[in-house]
Amino acid sequence: MNRKLFGIIAILVVVALAVPAVFNYAHASSNANRTVMVYMAADNNLNDYAYKDLNEMMNVGSQNGINIVVFIDYSNDGAYYYYINHGSYTTLKSLGEVNTGDYNTLRSFVSRAVSNYPANHYALIIRDHGGARMGAARDDTNNGDHLTLDEIVSAISGYHFDLLGFDACLMGTIEVYRTLAPYADVLVLSEQTEPGYGRPYDDVLGYLVNNPSTTAADRAKNIVDYYYNRYQNAGISGVTLGAFDTAYANELKQKLDDFVYDVANNRGTYRYYKDRIRYYTTDFFYDLQADLMLYVYLSGYFVSEVSDTANAIIDLYFNHILINFKTDIKYAYGMSIFYPSDYRDYNNLADQYNSLQRSQNTVRDDLLYYLENY
User: What pTM value is reported for the model?
Assistant: First the structure.
């Protein structure tokens, strides 16, 4: 992963601008249109980037009916709740040492933000390392504990977000999409690893403050554009970011099930081509993830018997699910699937993967069964 140090200057600027005030909620925007929550798990090697993120947020600040509330766990100074003002932040609460990999930490933050900063709409960004189907929000002080997908669901159960995003690596997967679709209107996810600098929060929040009534879909489109353009302008390649409409999650599942059914009924022909199909599919995460749309397309290309169901998936994805996607990686289309190129890796990781209850019974299970076990 590309993790360049940000530098001591940013740290000094943030410290100088900080305005502590314990349990002070007086700055809440009345009649708020949106409350944006940023959950920053920085008790790891991303600690220095947290200061950069805070600086960018303070360049905009809470205004024009927008509340910006941050949880941050530093690697050297415990954890805090902040309210982001223009040019400063207010310390709402000092938490001491906490575990960002404990779902109660995330749930407490969301609950407090919703209770103290009620709004018409809510957005949640989880900022940290990501591990695709395995989750995010690693805490090195707590033995590398992190939030699994099931724990994230437990943390946000009962809440709904118009936009839910991960400022983290590798979270653009079918497993993440399907698991979190019931809790948000739009998901913003990266199929590839992310540079350590993460999102351009000044651009993203600046657009929101200047367009407070914009839809979640429009905001997501702009997040993708700002993110991609910033790294392209900086000469950093190999980045991806996508925005996805969750309204079609169940329909996508059905079409993927239809695809697997066709594979099963044509297993002899499919097995002949399966290694070639997998070989030409773009890999992510040390060859553990495969680009889903390319895999489906190649399946239909090589095996005509599955082309109808493959094309139905592709049509649904590009015409309805994918809101916006930007990358300079050839043959990457925004969403991957857990499908190791080496079947031994699948065997080694299958038990760990299947412990994620809400992401079980995906197309991956049936697909690999038909391709490897008949």
Answer: 0.88
